[in-house]
Design a protein that fits this description.
The protein is α/β, with parallel strands linked by helices. It has two domains: 30-116, Rossmann fold (3-Layer(aba) Sandwich); 140-273, Rossmann fold (3-Layer(aba) Sandwich), CATH 3.40.50.720. Helices cover 40% and strands 18% of the residues. The chain is built from ten helices and eleven strands. It has helices at residues 7-27, 44-60, 75-87, 106-112, 124-131, 140-151, 171-179, 199-204, 255-258, 272-290, and strands at residues 3-4, 34-40, 63-69, 93-96, 160-164, 188-192, 208-211, 228-232, 236-239, 247-250, 262-265. β5 (160-164), α7 (171-179) and β6 form a beta-alpha-beta unit. α2 packs across α10 and α6 packs across α7. The longest helix is centred in the N-terminal third of the chain and has 21 residues, at 7-27. It is globular. It starts with a strand and ends with a helix. The structure holds guanine. Residues 95-98, 120, 140, 169 line the site of guanine. Guanine binds at residues 95-98, 120, 140, 169.
């Protein structure tokens, strides 16, 4: 029988821990942590994520500011806004919600955020520091997955781990973090992607599979070995007439087929998603304390 990794409950507990830490920090004369989010345009998923980040800030006692900008904003105007927030000493962390409209160079915007305020951990300085094992802001989703391993006491040392997907935000940093010489590292990592020819065989050999390719229900029951740990990072929104919102979320894992073979598995929703937000909060608290 598999054990469900409950990201929702774990994140709720961590939020309580953060709230307590903020209380103590402020009591000792520290400033209330402040996260700013820039949201360009009206993408439905981005609106939902940013609203959820704002709600989470309130839950732990952070200040938050959402800066809403129209799709028509120019790259120069957006960069100017980022610069303004870089200089604003009251703001500890800044995230620019992705994706950005096509006419804006995303990488240029990422690199405009001060590394000390880059609580998403997307700036090359933070990525580079993470790669060589220096203290850095670590991308929120991989950090959240490591936290789940820690809280559920899932050992990675000596294990064979497959990461499917090579995005800058999840797949690449996840692979590096799992192969680091650290307690929740020391795994032998295989990074698979769309050109990997024998993905099924590779996955069948894995003790831990992290599915982060963004393809709904890609990982099927015949692709995992008995007793594997499966982490589902996918969140594909599909129309549904069974939910109030008219949408439902599908993971990258075909849960009903895969779960019976697993020792541990994350659900979608309620698995990795809530942990991502908690990692962002942790990074913001760190940014605020380090100032
Ligand atoms: N879009 C999808 N995931 C993320 C994230 O973690 N941070 C930001 N800024 N944008 C995203």
């Amino acid at each position: 029988m598999y054990q469900l990794i409950d990201g929702k409950a774990t994140s709720a507990q961590i939020k309580e821990e953060i709230a307590e830490e903020v209380k103590q920090f402020v009591k000792q004369g520290g400033k209330i942590p402040h996260l700013a989010a820039i949201l360009v345009g009206h993408d439905g998923a981005s609106e939902t994520y940013v609203a959820s980040k704002e709600r989470s800030c309130q839950q732990v006692g952070f200040n938050s500011t959402i800066i809403r900008l129209e799709d028509s904003i120019t790259e120069a105007e957006l960069l100017k806004k980022v610069e303004e927030i870089n200089k604003n000493v009251d703001i500890d962390g800044l995230i620019v919600q992705l994706p950005l409209p096509d006419h804006i160079n995303e990488q240029k915007v990422i690199e405009a955020v001060l590394p000390e305020k880059d609580v998403d951990g997307f700036h090359p300085v933070n990525v580079g520091r993470m790669v060589i094992g220096l203290p850095a802001f670590i991308s929120a989703t991989p950090a959240g997955i490591l936290e789940l391993f820690k809280r559920y006491n899932i050992k990675t040392s000596g294990k064979s781990c497959v990461v499917i997907g090579r995005s800058n935000i999840v797949g690449k940093p996840m692979g590096i973090l799992l192969s680091r010489k650290s307690e929740y590292g020391n795994a032998t990592v295989t990074l698979c992607h769309s050109r990997t020819p024998n993905i099924k065989e590779v996955c069948l050999n894995a003790d831990i599979v992290i599915a982060a390719l963004g393809k709904a229900e890609f990982l099927t029951g015949d692709m995992v070995k008995e007793g594997a740990v499966v982490i589902d990072v996918g969140i594909t929104r599909v129309k549904s007439d069974k939910t109030k919102s008219g949408w439902k979320l599908l993971g990258d894992v075909k849960f009903d087929e895969v779960a019976p073979k697993c020792s541990y598995i994350t659900p979608v929703p309620g698995g990795v998603g809530p942990m991502t937000i908690v990692s962002l909060l942790k990074n913001t608290l760190l940014a605020s304390k380090e100032k």
